[in-house]
Amino acid sequence: MKTLHVKIGEHQIKFLSPYKHLLAKFTDEYEILKGNKRVKPDLLIYLESGYGTSFINYEVDNFRENGKINFRRADYQITVDKDYKVAKLYFHDDLALKHAMMNLYSSYIVYHNWGLLIHSSAVVNDNKAFIFAGRSGAGKSTSAMLSMPRTILSDEAAIVKIDKGKSTVYHSPFRSEIKSTNLKEYSPVEGIYLLHQSHDFHKHAIKKSDAFLQLMDKVFYWSREAEDAKKIIALLKNLVNLTPVHHLYFQKNDKFWEVIS
């Protein structure tokens, strides 16, 4: 059995597979850990390819069976033990693997009450992270591209740790277009901006209650389990209490940084 140790956020993850080429899929965007292989990982994932069919839609069936948590889509299936220590991941192709890992990791960090995976880009400016969210096509990837050469922590799925006193964005391996520049970087959150393409540049603050509602559909993982739903709601409420949230109206150039920084 071949193995690979990686780090996502603050979590050490060990992949196991009979096939070395499956593990090689993680070497570009993931932080690879070297050294003591005997360190117990936070999550152990068995990988196997050849599952199901190609992508049909984003609908994921989530159910419990024989004491295990299951996520099933046409192109992947995940089975996790109830303590989120060991998972088996079966996938059809690279897209399925990416989406399965996003599903598994987002549910993992919710289970441990650590944070949320948010559909957004995140950019570092003056050692602080700015999160850009919005509906599909609003400009999340565009705002990240326009921000270069600043460090891009995410262009699709931001990993946000949410403590009682602060929120932090970590490098995300779940990428759409922009490759990672620093796999180990993380920064405290300075603000969250909901994007709107416009003819001018301006921002205005959103009330915390409205910000919570606006961000609910930007969270990747929602569960049918009441306990998980309570955790997600509490984490999101804490995030908007910690972090200013604004509407940002912008054109497709980098002048929006003059408005927000």
What do these coordinates show?
This protein has six helices and 16 strands. By secondary structure, it is an alpha+beta fold. The strands form two sheets. An eight-stranded mixed β-sheet has the order 3-1-2-4-8-7-6-5. Strands 9-10-14-13-12 form a five-stranded mixed beta barrel. Strand 7 (76-81) and strand 8 (86-91) form a beta hairpin. The longest helix is centred in the middle third of the chain and has 18 residues, at 94-111. The termini are far apart. 37% of the residues are buried.
Can you describe this structure in just a few lines?
With 261 residues, this protein is of the alpha+beta class.
How is the topology of this model organized?
Blueprint: E1 2-8, E2 11-17, H1 20-23, E3 31-32, E4 43-49, E5 61-65, E6 68-73, E7 76-81, E8 86-91, H2 94-111, E9 115-125, E10 128-133, H3 140-147, E11 152-154, E12 157-162, E13 167-170, E14 186-197, E15 202-205, H4 208-216, H5 226-242, E16 245-250, H6 256-260
Parallel strand pairs: 2-4, 4-8, 10-14, 14-16
Antiparallel strand pairs: 1-2, 1-3, 5-6, 6-7, 7-8, 9-10, 9-11, 9-12, 12-13, 13-14, 15-16
Helix pairs in contact: 4-5
